[in-house]
Amino acid sequence: MSVLSRLFSRKDPREIARSAYDRIVALGRDPYWYLDGQVEDSVDGRFEAVTMVLAAVLLRLENDDADPKVRQFSVFLAELFVDDMDGQLRQNGVGDLIVGKHIGKMMSALGGRLGAFREALASGDGAQLGQALRRNLYRDAPVEESAVSASADHLSALYARLRTVPAEAVMQGAF
Predict the structure, then answer these.
(1) What is the pLDDT of residue 58?
(2) Considering its fold, how many domains does the chain have in total?
(3) Which of 18, 100, 110, 125 is the most exposed place for a label (fewest CB within 10 A)?
């Protein structure tokens, strides 16, 4: 690295969210979702699992979003998600002209998941969470009730654990 590039380079401020985002992806790739939960192990299935875990983390952070630092961190997480999905699309051969349209749909999907899981997780109603999972995680594809129940239990446990973790620890990826 040259002297000039070291002087003029700026660190990406979103990198403070990298550990948490990497943890979210790792949790979304947990074999449990694909084995017991019967989530399709495909690009779409992995997208849905990662989006679901990201939504749970963002919902946890909402509890502390009066703190501007937490609110900004949530934005950084969403931006890292967009960057990651952009890279995944390009790697899978989606051209520049269409990437933006796909990213818009993905962000809309994240917003939908936030709404669906916010209500279902807050209610503690397993049936409501199961419906939200069928609609979002499984995209209304036929799936065994035992798989939906397994995913609902796993997501509920993750969210319950997240709620016991201080926001600072969540922001460090320690959840």
Answers:
(1) 98
(2) 1
(3) 100
Could you tell me the end-to-end alpha-carbon distance of the chain, in angstroms, rounded to an integer? 35
0.70 surpassed by pTM: yes
Q: Is residue 53 part of a domain?
A: yes
pLDDT digits (tens, 9 = 90+) for 80-109: 999 898 777 667 676 666 766 777 888 888
Residue 138, in any domain of the structure? yes
Length of the chain: 175
Q: Alpha-carbon distance 41 to 37, whole Å?
A: 11
User: Would you say 103 and 85 are in contact if contact means Cβ atoms under 8 Å apart?
Assistant: yes
Q: Which candidate, 16, 130, 107, 126, places its Cα nearest to that of 55?
A: 107
Q: Which residues contact 132 (CB under 8 A, 6 or more apart)?
A: 116, 117, 119, 120
